[in-house]
Amino acid sequence: MQVTETTFDINKIRADFPVLDQKVNGKQLVYFDNAATTQKPKAVIEAIKTYYEGYNANIHRGLHTLAEKATTAFEETRKTFQQFVNANEVEEIIFTKGTTDSINLVAHAYGRKFFKSGDEILISGMEHHSNIVPWQLLCEATGAQLKVIPVKEDGSISLADVEDLITDKTKLVSVVYASNSLGTINPVKEIAALAHKADAVMMVDGAQAASHCNVDVQDLDCDFFATSGHKMYGPTGTGILYGKRALLEAMTPYQGGGEMIKNVSFEETTYNDIPYKFEAGTPNIADIVALKEAADYISALGKDNIMVYEQELTKHAHQVMAEVPGIKFYGTAEEKVSVVSFTLETVHPYDVGMMLDAKGIAVRTGHHCTQPLMDHFGIEGTIRASFSVYNTKEEITQLAEGLKDIVSKFG
């Protein structure tokens, strides 16, 4: 189904997000910081309220009515995400605090058990710090070596470079599905095939993919997939890690405490089955319950519909923003999500961000937690406008006009 702005009921969608109905500095809010965090629909907000008002209780260990109701709601979210990413089994879905937490879990629970000096970890040059630093820490602890796939001028990576860099020493490849700074969609399925050819494990950072792309972990054949709730209309402090059962069962626990055990004595502890082996302590129950509503919201709109609509927004952005004097775009790969990063020749990104805020327009400025990528392009940072399903072409045109006004006055 080909979806454009005229076939989406934008007014209805926008009404689902209460935060959009406000003025900032006397202007109607235009929210273009969706790559940092998306806004939350009423269904997500109400789910949190309903949990605390109706059945606030700890999960899994209680036999009373509230505990059973909370446990059921909590586990329904797990079932929803099994379907959302098409995992083979519900036990392959582990709840975490988000993508950063998930990657750290794999680095500790898998990497520290199986990596040794001389092993190699391969990442790309466009990775978020959360997909760099955990592997650096692992390398420091084990003597493994970190290798980096170069980024081309258009913000893409070459499969030929990936193939050249993978060796018989490569034990893990970890690549972002869609770049938070550039929007580039990487060929993670093809990279996974190259990794597996060398008997390496493939991890995908899906933080920017879950709300924009169809995610099918079985089709990708990735070994691990991480994403964050707050970037897909869900609460902050929530996320999931998908892992293939055989790998999860072979891994050691990431943290110790309640829930992740079967039996404890002072002499020995027996660990719980997956996924509970990796969910120590009382989780963020209310927000994970509400996370189901976020996934359901995306599914109800239709991932294909969202993708096409957001591509229309991105195309429109490049067209109208290209008219801004002195603009330079970063991330012009053919396949990308709805992220537009740019600089202005005569105005610093931070100044642009503040002046746009005065106009009620929220964008992100800086290095976007991708400092090595900014160094690659020889810049301090960019201005990033990132779009979501509740944004409109009219808002994007307003951004372009705001940029022209800034350049005319301060450029």
Short description:
With 411 residues, the protein is α/β, with parallel strands linked by helices.
What would the keywords be for this entry?
alpha/beta; Aspartate Aminotransferase, domain 1; Aspartate Aminotransferase, domain 2; 7-stranded mixed β-sheet; disordered N terminus; EC 2.8.1.7; pyridoxal phosphate binding; cysteine desulfurase activity; pyridoxal phosphate; transferase
Report on the structure:
With 411 residues, this protein is of the alpha/beta class. The protein folds into two domains: 10-37 and 302-410, Aspartate Aminotransferase, domain 1; 45-299, Aspartate Aminotransferase, domain 2. It is 40% helix and 17% strand. It contains 14 helices and 17 strands. It has helices at 10-15, 42-54, 65-85, 99-114, 133-142, 159-165, 188-197, 217-220, 245-250, 285-301, 303-321, 349-358, 371-377, 393-410, and strands spanning 23-24, 27-28, 30-31, 93-96, 120-124, 145-149, 170-176, 201-205, 224-228, 239-243, 261-264, 269-271, 327-330, 339-344, 361-362, 364-366, 382-386. Strands 4-10-9-8-7-5-6 form a seven-stranded mixed β-sheet, with helices on both faces. Strands 13-14-17-16 form a four-stranded antiparallel β-sheet, covered by helices on one side. Strand 5, helix 5 (133-142) and strand 6 (145-149) form a beta-alpha-beta unit. Helix 3 (65-85) packs across helix 10 (285-301) and helix 11 (303-321) packs parallel to helix 14. It is globular and about 75 Å long. The two termini are 43 Å apart. 46% of the residues are buried. The model is unreliable at 1-6 (pLDDT under 50).
